[in-house]
Amino acid sequence: MTVSRGSPLVFLIAGEPSGDAIGARLMAALRMRHGPDIRFAGLGGEAMVAEGLDSLFPISEISIMGLLEILPRLSLVLRRIRETVAAIQHL
Prior knowledge:
By secondary structure, this protein is an alpha/beta fold. Helices cover 47% and strands 13% of the residues. The chain has helices spanning 17-34, 46-50, 67-70, 74-89, and strands spanning 9-13, 39-43, 54-55. Strands 1-2-3 form a three-stranded parallel β-sheet, sandwiched between helices.
């Protein structure tokens, strides 16, 4: 993820499709209110990427529900959480 300095930056995280849809609407509303120079970074799906989000990775990697689904992918989810935290810390 590359983040330039200067314009306002909003970091958003959506981990599943309904959050992606809400995030995309939020991004559109923020752009209407604050102008086209606002920047978005974080984690989101296709709708947020279409609104200009520079997503760290596809949300499909962590969009899982239920204990039985998460256990086999727990190491991936934990790694992605660490990567997201690191990206925020380096802003």
